[in-house]
Amino acid sequence: MSKIVMWFRKDLRLDDNTAFSHLLKQSKETDEVMCIFQLNPSQFIKKSYNHDAFFLSVQTFYKELRKRQIPLHFLYGDPEENFTALKETFDDWDAVYFNKDERGFGRVRDQKLADFFEQHQIQIHAYQDSHLHGVEEITKPTGESYKVFTPYYKQWQLRSKRPYKKQQVIERIFPEIGHPLFDEGKKQFNEIIKQIKLPFDYECGETVAEDYLKKFITNGLHEYQSKRDYPLADQTSKLSRFLRTGELSIRKVWHAIQAEPESTGRQTFISELCWRDFYNMIYFNHPKQKDQEIKEQYRELQWHYDEQLFEKWREGKTGYPIVDAGMRQLNQTGWMHNRLRMIVASFLTKDLMIDWRMGERYFQEKLIDYDSASNIGGWQWAASTGTDAVPYFRIFNPTTQGEKFDPTGAFIRMYLPELNDLPNEYIHCPSKMSKKVQESLGFYLGDHYPKPMVDHQKIRPEILAFFKNS
Ligand code: FAD
């Protein structure tokens, strides 16, 4: 008999969990399996509440496991110290199973721990589980990695995807293992949960994730192409947060979509899943991208760091309604529609010329679907410093974006009730209202809603010069 650790991370499900199903297949009935969740305090972002929603997903997973008589043991502290202490107690521990983190913080941690496991003769069973294709699977015929999305996507489409394997009934006994480390881990976990205060409801768990998938396929998939850009339509899948926590298997999503008839909506949705893999691969190949521009020629740009302007952007008080509605959606719900993410990121990096890293970190704190690869990818795309082939003169006009994607202003009114009574002709540009109109409405710009913090039309040449002179 030996002891085996199943280390759960961003894979909070039993269904189609690659590492867990391999463990069940490869181990003996008599082996003792310890299921573990490791809490590393250096990863917590203390000032944010939205981001911590992740731990509510962990809590739900813990309860789901309990119902199946599978205890989840918590560890709290530095991972290497935790595992050292564990090995000192359980010298019959000889294998660890987990799903790999292929980039970012998790990748560095895994590399460090790989040495530790090897030193202690603990066999590592690590699997690619979180993406349809891992970071090294799709390469050019020369073996080089892709830098641009379109050729990557062409290759990606040609490659077959792994099957989805529904979790069968588990006929195994998972013992509850007593240890002061686990007691401390559970105590700390309870503390974390107690401190979470979300300004919105947060439903989570495998069953909820599956419901979202089913609802999207029935109501949104085939119209995805025509409706996905309109925040009011709210027709995107909202699956990002379940993919982030691993409450939903990406292979389950893929095969459910494959079972549907062909449509433009279905095809566009598939390309979005590819963006997720693409950015994951890019992060793997550019490990410094959280702090450093991918395009070398933009590493010396003189970004601005004006705290007051940044605060107005954060709070949704820029004077540009579509930007402000997006930011308030983020602050109030922990999620923001993709079109709005592009608009607000463009506004921060181009109109305000504020360092994209500040925006990236703010999103990290606030997004419940925060995924480092997609977020950094999205921010570097908006700042024109990333892999995108379109040059820096793509600058979103916040007024025309609003007119195009929220034509009646109904979405803006949802998040900016102070603009509720504005006639449609002014909803995207309240600063166009003359004094007389303001008086007739009893609405005064500067009092009831901020004046635009910059004049987009006038600032455009400055932005172009900012990039050109770099
Ligand atoms: P849907 O439109 O239903 O798309 C389906 C799935 O495809 C998403 O759940 C997501 O997994 C994937 N996807 C869609 N668009 C993208 C994209 N552009 N890049 C990578 N994957 C994509 N996505 C995150 O998951 N986490 C982030 O932290 C994140 N930050 C972003 C920051 C910026 C500045 C921008 C422009 C985009 C960011 N995105 C991020 C991508 C995208 O906005 C979200 O994935 C999407 O809005 C999530 O909603 P949904 O699940 O309804 O998406």
From TrEMBL:
Its cofactor is (6R)-5,10-methylene-5,6,7,8-tetrahydrofolate; FAD. Binds 1 FAD per subunit. One of its GO terms (molecular function) is DNA binding. Residues 2-132 form the Photolyase/cryptochrome alpha/beta domain. Its EC number is 4.1.99.3. One of its GO terms (biological process) is photoreactive repair. It comes from the Bacteria. It holds the Pfam family FAD_binding_7. It is an enzyme of class 4 (lyase). The record marks W303, W356, W379 as: Electron transfer via tryptophanyl radical. Keywords: Chromophore, FAD, Flavoprotein, Lyase. It catalyses: cyclobutadipyrimidine (in DNA) = 2 pyrimidine residues (in DNA). Signal peptide: none annotated. FAD binds at residues 224, 236-240, 269, 272-279, 369-371. Belongs to the DNA photolyase family. This is Deoxyribodipyrimidine photo-lyase.
